[in-house]
Amino acid sequence: MTGAYKLHGGLAFEPALFGAIETLPLPEHIGIQIDRHATPAITVGDHVLKGQVLCEGEPDQALHHASVSGEVTGISQGVISIKSDGQDNDFISPRVNAPSALQINALCKQYGLVGLGGAAFPVNKKLDSIQHHTPDTLLINAAECDPAIYCDEALMQERTEDIVKGIELALAASSARQCIVGIEENKTEAIAKLLKHLPAEIKLVSVPALYPSGAENTLFSLCTGQTGGLRKHHSLCFNIATCYAIYKAVILAEPLISRVVTVITESTVRNFELRIGTPITDLCNHLSQPLHSAITCGGQMMGWPVTSEQYIDKRTNSLIFHPPRADKAVACIRCGACADVCPEKLLPQQLLWHAKPHNRQALLSLDLHNCIECACCDVVCPSHIPLTEYFIHAKKKIRSDNTEQKKAELAKIRYEARLARLQNQSKRERKKLDAKSADLSNSKNKDQLKKDLIAKALQKSKSKKQQPPEKNTDGDRS
Question: How far lies 157's CA from each of 19, 163, 194, in Å?
Answer without folding.
Answer: 10, 10, 8
